[in-house]
Amino acid sequence: MPRFYCPTPLVPDALLELPAGAARHVQVLRLQPGDTITLFNGEDLREFDATVTRMGRSDVQVQVGQARATAREPARRVHLAVGMPANDRMDWLVEKATELGVASIQPLMTERSVLRLSGERAEKKVAHWHSVAVSACEQCGGNRVPTVHPVQTLAQWLKTLPVAAADSQRLLLSLRESSAALHTRPLTQEATFLSGPEGGLGSTEEDLALAHGFAPVSLGSRILRAETAALAALTTLALLP
């Protein structure tokens, strides 16, 4: 059954006009009144059946059906802060991180970042990455769309971090000799994982992260691409008990 993101409160039996993106998708699929779809709003962990009641030229009306509880979200909430990789690799990273159940994504500009964004261009990129995350949720069955935060520099972001809660931890991907293997660390139910761009974070940047409570961890002896490293960490954190 086709799944569509509908960022509005979903109430059983209510008549609802689908948002423009979902409406276009329904029309592309040539669905007709009486056809059934699935809706989710990105925050509620439930999803809802809905029946198409009217097809306009550019609008689609549905009647919301009953809610279904689902359990597709990871038990551990992981927030990914990443030095943005160049070209279309950030799109790919957002898509795959969403499929793996990341809770939020913080795009960062760092010392070695190739991609530099500010102002309107940065806002457009963040909106685009949000749409990539939405599409990934529609495809993979996730009911919680990860937040894609506004682009910041690493230093700016670190200054905004609140005091870490007892049930959360901060992890820094690092090649330092003191780094512990990620899979050997005792983990909490919430984690913030910081990973650099191509070439990794600079030593001064790593020192700054350590001063803000991050612990250095390693994924092994191989040198991974920036986007591969972030996804390998997310996979590890999702699978570890």
Describe the structure.
The protein is of the alpha/beta class. The protein folds into two domains: 3-69, Hypothetical PUA domain-like, domain 1 (Ribosomal Protein L25, Chain P); 77-239, 3-Layer(aba) Sandwich (Alpha/beta knot). Helix content is 30%, strand content 27%. The chain is built from six helices and 13 strands. It has helices spanning 20-28, 89-99, 119-140, 154-160, 203-211, 226-239, and strands at 3-5, 15-17, 36-40, 46-55, 60-69, 77-83, 104-109, 147-148, 152-153, 168-173, 180-181, 190-195, 215-218. Strands 6, 7, 8, 9, 10, 11, 12 and 13 form an eight-stranded parallel sheet that branches. Helix 2 links the parallel strand 6 (77-83) and strand 7 (104-109). Helix 2 (89-99) packs parallel to helix 3 (119-140) and helix 2 (89-99) packs parallel to helix 6 (226-239). The two termini are 32 Å apart.
Describe the structure in brief.
The protein is an alpha/beta fold. It has 6 helices and 13 strands.
Distance between the termini: 32 Å
> What is the assigned CATH homologous superfamily of the largest domain?
SPOUT methyltransferase, trefoil knot domain
CATH C-level name of the largest domain: Alpha Beta
Sheet/helix structural class: alpha/beta
The CATH topology of the largest domain turns out to be Alpha/beta knot
Strand content: 25-35%
